[in-house]
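Hi,

I'm pasting everything inline rather than attaching a file, because the server keeps stripping attachments. The sequence lines come first, and each chain or strand is labelled.
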Amino acid sequence: MSPPQANRSGLLLSAGAQRRQRVARMLGQSFLFAVASVSAVAVLFIFVFIVRDAVPFFSWERLRGFFTSTRWYPSGSPPEFGALAIIYGSAMVTVGAVVVAVPLGIAAAVCLSDVLPFGARQIIKPVIEILAAIPSVAYGFFALVVFAPLLQEHGGRVLAVMVWLLGLPLCALAVLVLSDMLSRLAGHHGRKGPQGVIAAILGCLFAGLLIWLSRMAAAVQIDSGTNALNVALILGIMALPTVVSVSEDALQAAGRELREGSYALGATRAETLLNVVVPAASGGISAAVILGFMRAIGETMVVWMASGNAAQLPQPFYNFLMPVRTLTATIAGDMGEADHVTGSERYHVLFVMALVLLLISFGCNSVSEWIIWRRRKRLGV
Amino acid sequence: MKRHVFSGTMAAMLALLPLAVMGETKLVLDGSTTLGPLAKAFAEYFMQQNPGVKISVSESGSGNGAKSLINGTCHIATMSRAMKPEEVQAAAAKGVNVVAHIIAVDALPVLVHPSNPVKDLTVQQVKDIFLGKITNWKEVGGPNMKIVKISRDTNSGTYECFEELVMNNEKMANDVEYVGSNGAVRQRVMSTPAAIGYAGLAFVDKKVKALKINGVAPCPVTARNKTYPIARPLYMYTNGEPKKGSTLERFINLHKTKKGREIVEEIGFVPAD
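And the predicted assembly:
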């Protein structure tokens, strides 16, 4: 029981102390806000400076030529700035890189989070993350000095190996699924004997298909090893750690309860993974795919060294075995000559390319945000 | 007491640091990758003869070298082409008076893979190959292979020399591959049997084959007497005439000394006469 004359002011702050505390809190908050907004302000400034130096190039004929002409001769007389082939080259190697990195990355993430034992995950995840720490110029050097001659000398064999690597899992899956479907149609569902026979026949058919495809691939002659295939593969390997890390985090974040609930309802591991866990983590997985895409489109050193830098549209449009040129390599390669004083059009067109890259990045970011927002809305979170 | 001793020592060391740095003269070179090996050999020899001089050599391309000299970030711009009128104007606008010194003469050999049986071509044939009019080696007496054309990027003095002397300023075909340095050209040609490219004379060795052009093989003698058609002078540009007796002046005139000429020949260029 406190004494009646208790000194209440010992529990309350004096007016001066209150004012000091308020000022200190405001100072602290403003300082933290300033520090946090430096990154946002920096991005804004980059945007402003790039737009400022790209705008002098803007005129209807020049922009039309930029986006529709494939003739890139910045040092010619008269100079021509047709960047269609360059934009197509960027798109081509990025699509190739995404095709390599996304299936491999998501499959690896699913393995790491749900299939492999915990000990294996502890070893494999750091190894995959080391791939992300290798400098891109080391990748470029490997692509130029080791991989390009390999493609030139043994191009057919490398392509045949790729056909087998991609084909075997797909064909095995197809055999399993088709034999199941066919045996169900034939009314023999559940009986191992007939299903086994169907699977064996289908297996022979698919094996024959693979052998024929790999023979065709082995007959291909690659003229130049510095081409879109080389760069797409290397970029895919570079984007892989990003995709694996982010997907794996998303899969882990789905939570044990979800998986246990699904198992409790009697689902097998495959059904849990395909129908419950992966859809639950789909927001994070899409974010991972978009991060991988942005890594691939912004990469400069590898494409500058190993893509051949030929500003041409590949004939036919899906021919990855021809050299291509990307936006990033053009900016890096032409920067030295495009001096502000000695040729302004050549200087400003590089900024237009940088603006295109920036807009693509912003676009990807917006798409990623929209996907997450839409999922959140659908789940009512 | 201990704190005072420590801070006193630190203060003394910091005060002496500028003195340590002041004792050195620094020379910064920037520019052509063609001149790279020569500039580095000169720098090494000069630093040996003059301890206390620090010379740094960068190779970012002739265009970048000119830019550096104009912006004052280098003392000597090494260039494998003459400065363009716009560059000279830009320099004058910044108060930089560019003075050219011809250090050596270079020939641009046209390189092919050692396994390629073709031994010589005319300038017109080389031009047609790079224009895309000749696309297969069998059209010029070689095997039935599609020609893989390797060029230097447009940033380079080597490219501009080739453009002027061989292409007559006509635009190359759009399937020509561009690489970033003379070393990269050599690397691509030596690993691609169907390749054709061009680099400086200093980059020819056993792993690549230099073709005869118009019947003349590229070598120091033919470069100097102008019988080899694709030859060019190599420049070092300074801001104004170097002061007599200064380190800069001694370095610039190194190519006139006997040892300088030896180094030039060792690298594979031709001493300027």
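Residues 162 and 230 of chain B are 7 Å apart (CA to CA).

If the labels don't parse on your end, tell me and I'll reformat.
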